[in-house]
Amino acid sequence: ATSAREALQQQLQLIQEAFEEECLKSDQMHAKLTSKLKAKTQLLAEKDAELANKNAEVVAAKALLDAAQRTAEAGQKQVDAAHKSAEAAQQSVRDRVEAVRQRERKLQAEIDGLHAEMANMRAELSSSSSALIAAQAEAARADGKAAAEKAALKEAEARHAARVKDLEAQLHHLAVDGGPRSIAAEAELRQQRSLCARLEADLDSRNNTVQKLQHSLYVVRAHWGGLRQLLTRLHVVVQEAEEESKWEEAAQQQLAANVGGGVEGRNWG
Questions:
Q1: What is the CA angle 79-83-88, rounded to 5?
Q2: Rounded to an integer, what distance in angstroms lies between the CA atom of residue 159 and that of residue 165?
Q3: How many Cα atoms are found within 13 Å in the side-chain-facing hemisphere of 174?
Q4: Which of 74, 167, 229, 232 gives 189 a disulfide partner, CB atoms 3.0 to 4.6 angstroms apart?
């Protein structure tokens, strides 16, 4: 019985030692697990803090993104408004360019009309100059002829006056006889007087012709002077129209250059 009790005690001792050893191992394992748990807890706390920081960064980034989105929307509105303004400006420029082109076409038509009118005036002036030269030559011939006829008429008048005076003297001397000689003298005297009357009428007619030619010459000269003045005015008008057309063309080119530079600058902006 004593041996059995000792054996049992030894077994109990062994069991207790094994239990204590297991408890020690369990405590060591518990300590390790507790240490690991603390490390995990600290790591989780750090992760939570990092996550909180990340969440704060996400919130801040979202706020920045929202602000950037609003800024982008406002910028897009400004860009749309700028595009509309640029389109309106381009349309206005196109309208102005079209108006300038219409004005240029109108001026060109007026210039062409003035050139045609000037050509007609030159032709008329040339014709009038030829008519004036012919009228001057005709007037010179008429003046010479009239002067010669006046001299001839004066000489004929002098001869006829002397002849009439001689016939009147003969008639006076022969009136007493009453013969055929006095009758013939009276007939010759009447004939000479009739010839003088015709010569005087012819002289008056030729004087009237000379006066008409002189008046025609005056009218032609006045018309020729008026044509020269009109031609001078037409030259001035054509020069002014050509200068205005050149000025508008230069202004149109400058306007197109300015518009091209402004649109390019807005596109770059």
A1: 145
A2: 10
A3: 15
A4: 167
DSSP string covering the chain: -HHHHHHHHHHHHHHHHHHHHHHHHHHHHHHHHHHHHHHHHHHHHHHHHHHHHHHHHHHHHHHHHHHHHHHHHHHHHHHHHHHHHHHHHHHHHHHHHHHHHHHHHHHHHHHHHHHHHHHHHHHHHHHHHHHHHHHHHHHHHHHHHHHHHHHHHHHHHHHHHHHHHHHHHHHHHHTTT-SHHHHHHHHHHHHHHHHHHHHHHHHHHHHHHHHHHHHHHHHHHHHHHHHHHHHHHHHHHHHHHHHHHHHHHHHHHHHHHHHHHHHHHHHH-
Matching residue, tokens 């030829």: 130
| pLDDT 10s digits, 81-130 | 888 888 888 888 788 878 877 887 887 787 788 778 777 777 776 776 67
The CATH architecture that domain 108-269 belongs to is Orthogonal Bundle (1.10)
Cα separation, 211 vs 195, whole angstroms = 24
Q: CA 251, CA 108: separation in Å to the nearest integer?
A: 16
Tell me the two tokens of residue 13: 């001792």
Q: Is it the case that residue 183 has pLDDT exceeding 70?
A: no
pLDDT at 265: 45
Give the amino acid at 258.
N
Please give the Cα distance from 88 to 94 (Å, whole number): 10
pLDDT at 86: 83
Rounded Cα distance, 209 and 188, in Å: 31
pLDDT for position 264: 47
